[in-house]
Amino acid sequence: MKITRFLIGFARSLVFLFRRPIYVTLMGGPGAGKGTVAQTLAPELGLAHLSTGALMRREVEKKTPLGQSIEKIMKAGKLVPDEIVFKLLEQELERPANWRGAILDGFPRTRAQAEWLTALFGKWHTRLTVAVQLEVPEADIIERLSGRRVCSNTSCGTTYHVTFNPPKTEGVCDKCQSALMQRADDKPEVVLARLVEYRAAQAPILAYYGEVGGLWSIHTTNKNTPAQVLANVKSAVLASSKR
Ligand code: AMP
Predict the structure, then answer these.
(1) How far is the centre of ligand 1, averaged over its atoms, from the C-alpha of 7 (Å)?
(2) In whole angstroms, what is the distance from residue 105 CA to residue 36 CA?
(3) To the nearest whole percent, how much of the chain has pLDDT over 70?
């Protein structure tokens, strides 16, 4: 087991030596557009799209004791404990299929998570390419979340908006024809709790990336098209990967 881990680590270091991975953290409040950007940009750049929210929901679906405790925390609009998030995320980053790099959507959400990521990449002799912060006014976030719909098939998970990005047929996913649903944590009372928690956690993360470098803030409103936001994030990633 120990020797397997060593060999995998060695192979990863070799791969990283010849092709530096691109790691992006896409941050922003609930409904800032992280998922929408990541699900288009990741395949375009050949990167994995790792959403910690989606990893948690996948665990909830398994109905294991761990999944049940995660479900309670998510329903209350709270953050899942670090040790659970770290384990699930590291497992995904370690997969050879994800060695080209990844767009992390919804991670880090605390300074401790940001520090853990820096340490993990340091251990792998690489680093975070850029920390992208999507800034959206609060009123725009509420308008977005109340109309957000997600595909009920978790292995698809495509997101839509009843006004800004409607599916071709109302209530049906364009990609896999499964029913669309409103996430339990997009209900107004849970959204408010998530915004309070987000604001408290965000300031130290921004301060952290201000100290270590690599922070790129992008201001958007509901007047911007998804294509404009995507183009801005893509330029930030490509410019930073040349540093
Ligand atoms: P999201 O899909 O990113 O909005 O996340 C949905 C929920 O999953 C959050 O409200 C948290 O309960 C949980 N979650 C997602 N990412 C994290 C994270 N990095 N740390 C802790 N909890 C998380």
Answers:
(1) 32
(2) 10
(3) 100
